[in-house]
Amino acid sequence: MRNFIYAILAIISLIALWFFMAPSAPQTSVVAFVATPDLTTNNEPKAAIETADYHWQIQAGKIIGPQQVEVPQNETLLLSFISDVPDEVHLHGYEQAVQINANEPATLRVRLEHSGRFELETHRLHRVISVLEVEPR
Description:
Elements: H1 2-21, E1 51-59, E2 62-64, E3 68-72, E4 76-83, E5 87-91, E6 96-100, E7 106-111, E8 116-122, E9 127-135
Parallel strand pairs: 1-4, 3-9
Antiparallel strand pairs: 1-2, 4-7, 5-6, 5-8, 8-9
């Protein structure tokens, strides 16, 4: 009986510790992003997209956004990021990077002059957040 009471007290203690010590979510609001190219106001795609805009959100180590982006060569991309921790995002092959401050949006503008497959990687998390497929024209 004594062991049963100790077990119950241990479980109650662990639950109480979890409630008091569990990390809380940041107090900033989270904006949902849609990972699609911009469209005209009448919802018809532009004949030639001059600039495509894609968004990623990094929160608690989880990456939300497109895992792969396919675009034609010679387009301009706006790659937008928001993270709950400071980081740097690097586009391999184009050797461009953007610094991200915690909970502040950051944008990388890239003119896609080279075709191929390029990784978009975070340096702090050391994770590939997306693959950029640039199709030759």
